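haha ok so turns out i had the wrong file open the whole time. this is the CORRECT one, sorry everyone. sequence first:
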Amino acid sequence: MSYLRKLDSPDLNERLREAIHLLPVDIKQITEWYYFDNLTVMDISKKIGRSKLTVTSKLKRAIYYLRKELNPSYYDQAVEIIYGKTPDKISF
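then structure:
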C-alpha cells in the first residue's frame, strides 16, 4: 500500500503530489519510489547503484524541499499520518 493512500485528506494528498512533482529530478525519482512504490532504502540503493547513505541523504533533502514548499502544518500532518511520528522523530 502506498504511503499516500494512508492520507484521508484529498487536499493534503494533492498538495503532497504537487510538491513532490517540483523536486529536482534525482530526488523526485527516489522520493516517488520510496513513498509511492514502497521501495526500501536498500532496494533503491541497489536500483541506482549508489550507497544507502546517498539514498538517505536524498530522501532527507526531499523532506527539506517539501517542508519549504508546503505549509508546515500540511507537512507535519502528512508525516504523522504516514509514520505515526512527528517529523523530528523520523529516521530512515
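The chain has one domain: 3-84.
again sry for the mixup
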